[in-house]
Amino acid sequence: MRVCIVYSSCTGNTRKVAEAIGAATGLPCHSVRHAPDPADYDCLAVGFWVRKGQPDARAQRYMRRIYGKPVFYFGTLGAWPQSAHALRCAQAAEALLQENGNTVLDGFLCQGKVNPRVIAASQRKGTHPMTPARLARLQEAARHPDGEDLQAAGQSWRHCLEAAAAVFHQQGATYAQEKS
After folding, report:
1. Fewer beta carbons within 10 Å, N or C terminal of the chain?
2. How far apart are CA 123 and CA 71, in angstroms?
3. What is the CATH number of the domain that holds 163?
4. What domain count does the chain have?
5. pTM higher than 0.85 for the full model?
6. What are the boundaries of the signal sequence (predicted)?
């Protein structure tokens, strides 16, 4: 089974998660800027950073090129990973992948440092005032992804890859029986 890990990263958070899942399975990671054609692979892991509740634009462009594949998505965001915002982000990623007939195996989101320019821009626009709760969340996000996040991402990816390999093996056996 041919497997590919592709990621888009702004501050290095998503790259760290990609490298962790790559290390967990011995697979190389590719920046979305230099990513191979998804059609050449049987299973993909696609990583993104969250921008305005969605995978970032580069990741979205790559995700739209994936057709009929089992896919694991992973991403980083400044919000709490169990928040309603994170749930909406996960749903957006899944919907985008499912548009082209892909099977979403699972997903993984964790906090990550928010680009200081993004924080400054939101302050200038007045869209996200710096409340004590927001400041605490951003300070916590700046400590992620941490070792626990990276281990959990690797474990999630390994489980998905094992499941995909079993399905791929079963489909291969069925195909071989049909040919005989």
Report:
1. C
2. 36
3. 3.40.50.360
4. 1
5. yes
6. none
In this structure, the chain runs to a length of 180
Mean pLDDT (whole number) for 152-171: 85
Closest to 160 in 3D by CA, of 78, 96, 74 = 74
Which contiguous run of DSSP H or E holds residue 174?
Answer: helix 147-179
Domain of residue 159 covers 3-178
Find the DSSP H helices in 99-146.
116-125, 132-141
Four-residue CA torsion sign, 79, 67, 12, 149: positive
pLDDT in tens, 13-37: 999 999 999 999 999 999 999 999 9
The token pair that represents 62 in the structure block: 């790559």
Alpha carbon distance 161, 154 (integer Å): 10
- One-letter amino acid of 93: A
